[in-house]
Amino acid sequence: MSLDEYTRREFKQVGTRVRRPDGVDKVTGRAMYGADATAPGMLTGRILRCPHAHARIKSIDVSAALALKGVKAVITGDDFAVPEDDFIRDVQENCMARGKALYDGHAVAAVAATDAAAAKAALKAIKIDYEVLPHVTDVDEAMKPGAPVVQAGRVQENVPKGYSENVTAHFEFGHGDMEAGFAKADKIIERSFKTAATHQGYIEPHACLASVTSDGKADLWCCTQGQFYVRTLCSSIMGMEASQLRVTASEIGGGFGGKTTVFIEPVALMLSKKAGRPVKIVMSRDEVFRATGPTVSSSSDVKIGMTKDGRITAGEATLRYQGGAFPCGTTEFGCSAAFAAYDLEAVRTYGWSVLTNRPKEAAYRAPGAPMAVYAVESVVDELCLELGLDPLETRLKNAARKGTKSSYGPTFPDIGLVATLEAAKAHPHYKAPLKPGQGRGLSCGFWFNFGGNTCVSLNVNTDGTVGITEGNPDIGGSRASISLMAAEELGIPYERIRTIVADTSSLGYNDVTDGSRVTFAVGLATIKAARDAIKKMSARAAKIWGIDPEAVEWKDGAAVPAGPNAGKFPPMSLAEIAAVSAETGGPIAGHYEVNADGAGVSFGVHLCDVEVDRETGATKVLRYTVFQDAGKAVHPDYVEGQMQGGAVQGIGWALNEEYIYGPDGRLQNPTFLDYRVPVASDLPMIETVILEIPNPGHPYGVRGVGETGIVPPLAALSNAVSHATGVRMTELPMSPPRVLKAIGGT
Amino acid sequence: MRYLAAKTAAEAAGALAAEKGLTRILAGGTDVLVQLRSGMVEPDLIVDIKKIPGIRGIVAESGGFRIGAAVSGAEIGEHAALCAAWPGVAEGVQLIGSTQVQGRCTMVGNLCNASPAGDAVPSLVAANAVARIAGPDGERDCPVADIPAGPGKTTLKKGEIITSIFLPARPDRASDAYLRFIPRTEMDIAVASAGVSLELNADGTVKAARIVLGAVAPTVVVADDAGKALVGTNLDDGALAAMAKACEAVCNPIDDKRGTIEYRTKMAGTLAKRAALIAYARAGGSK
Ligand SMILES: Cc1cc2nc3c(=O)[nH]c(=O)nc-3n(C[C@H](O)[C@H](O)[C@H](O)COP(=O)(O)OP(=O)(O)OC[C@H]3O[C@@H](n4cnc5c(N)ncnc54)[C@H](O)[C@@H]3O)c2cc1C
Q: Which fold has domain A23-31+451-596?
């Protein structure tokens, strides 16, 4: 890890709440989202989806659909070549089934027609002969030998015998002597938990416009978190060279991880290729729920031992995650995150990845961590209660800190958990009195964060302004933060900088906007690109002054001679250097390319107060405070927004959100009416406290903040409800019927 | 699909009666337009009733109120006298949707959409409201209680439209209340609901009580025994418990994504109890 990037400095612009560059467009409706792309001669694409949880496709007859007026193309899974790579094949088959439909909503055919009515009629005219197969949607059921097998032949070698073929992978993390650890405990609590699958619930449904020309070039406009990755997936699936497919990302109406892969893009490309015209596909909300990527549902067992004075002696967790009909990588993250907040001598986490007849999971903010941390933090809370210990003091006593060997392997550098816990302890919220029927909950949370491939160009315009070209869709305000960091480094006002998100032909490869990486990694690359430009501008000034480039320094937005020996010249500002660039060597631009590491983990602590109506089982969130380490909050508004947004999504997950399947294996609630995200009136103002423990891996100390915030709410809410009712809650969501039943009200 | 903005109730009824295909009436459209957009229904004829003279007005009649079929929830909320006499009816219709939906939605649309969970219906039935119906054979009056026939079904005959709802005069010491349970605080559909209308004696005991439950059966249910359990009492705990039990006894809910049978049943009693206490206080009763 590069842990020497950070140097202390006084910031002039970073840390201020400047005006967001995309705000006016968004509130006036001018911003161009996925569904806003149009092209001459564009066709409407629509997808036919399987109405069964699991079915063999015996035959598909598209002839009647093709014969309809206005229908220009019909495709099925057979139109796609079978990708050699397992992973790419999974992505392709998730976009369009081949041979077998694996979940309710799985795409089985698609049409392109001159208008929506013709496309709809064509879907109705496609005849499919299904053989309905037995299905399984519950993770524990799916693991049992004899469960309906979703996909055969996907089991990894290290999976022990005795399970269904649906169990595809097994993980184990940890260190220390477990037996000795539990032997030292004065109290051991072991509990089992369940969490429901939840959806990211982004406001904007997936949408794209694809145009494939007869000479093999293609353009794709889509709503995504990563246009470069979309290019990788789509060019592989379509058998195209990357250079021939240009992908442009639209403005994005939320993603939270759910837009890190493709669902409709290969379908639109194939339809366009076949029809010879541009094809646009816009998903309905029903399609978003049934056929994009919710997160996993889980079942878990946690066993923790503690001494009377609150030292954890050993912790063990077994996590069973179902990630839908394809192998899922989320389990490993869950296992790694489960005990990350603790400094433990003996710790073990076991993970199981399981196939079910559900849509293929996609990333959702800190994928895998919330459900794991929920189970662990629930048991820690119960131990504190049983042993009469203060839950905050107990966490402080066991907190991971600099030098702790983490439960997943690495040894932590400077981290902010202790400072975050201390901040919670000092906050008035922690001591505020509660009324009868109310309860307070607390939970720690953690996320790894990520750096990754990043490429930034910084162009100095001749009028003294600066344009930054970066390759990551702006989901959480990154354009503002990137401009701020460039302004800081260059020493020019924020308003003189405009940052744009480039298409895949304009810049080197950039990893997806995920892993809370953008402000960290793109920020780092921007600062370095600014330094590159500064070096070039200093050289131009040196040339004008006729001195050595090394004898020039950059100060407050201008080149100045470095010390009296360099000569006596008045400072040359960025604008002055830029204005004469044509005479000094041409345009000035800075660049930086990196595969960034040193992202710096981020910890958070959430405190929440609830009141439970004992006659209805309804939970009201009364007060909620988020404490989180941001390393350096470049634009505090956005950092607070991330912390609040994570908390709210977690509150929804804890209280009401869930994928509900009927006995027929079909999703019962693919609408925002019955998939209940919190509405504004459900929530108190989410208070935020930003901690700044600089990340040694970033020039300004920045850590990612986008994901940690969704990790603690599940346990914070569950602990609060358990305290309010006097009954330990072990299943999410804590919907009113479930709570009422748990407290004996029905 | 054809669209007709009828200028009279007779024209609307005539067109609806003559249409062989599927028809829908467009009041606020907050159900119809959503259903159209999602492809749930594909009507052949849509008849907009909002241009019919008088259909958007509230007028005093025989000490009570006649409310036109196209009066919106927001307009009802702004009618002080109506809200004072029938606060439970007003709060039922005003619970529908959000500010935007309130500007459009109607009580009659809610009634004729015939969802067992419609928020305007329990209080109307508890109030003994009467619908005035225009049809191919002329006009008739029918208790609101007799309009719902099951989920998505009404007893209205082909060509019939409701033109207004009549809420009777209120004696002194009478009031009503409506409560629904939803897992969130707004933008949701009732898991169970209760409308309660009470009339008190001079001594504060209950003279008459009408309790109507929503979302616990294919149509709203009038819980007669529950009402009887309150008569002669001043809502002491025993009376309330008996009333809640009687409510539970008439529930016949479904088990679905919105709630289990046992939960809905339990909620019906709980909500009726809470609504009764509110109506009682509004009617001037004190415990
Ligand atoms: C965002 C949103 C939130 C909502 N929230 C709620 C809620 O909280 N509670 C709730 O109960 N509902 C809710 N609804 C549903 C809807 O708003 C109500 O049912 C509303 O009262 C319907 O009234 P309308 O005038 O819009 O009916 P329309 O959509 O115009 O008509 C509804 C039905 O009634 C029939 N109809 C209309 N007028 C007449 C008439 N005069 N004679 C005979 N038949 C007629 C129509 O043919 C149609 O079948 C919500 C809807 C939306 C879109």
A: Aldehyde Oxidoreductase; domain 4 (3.30.365)
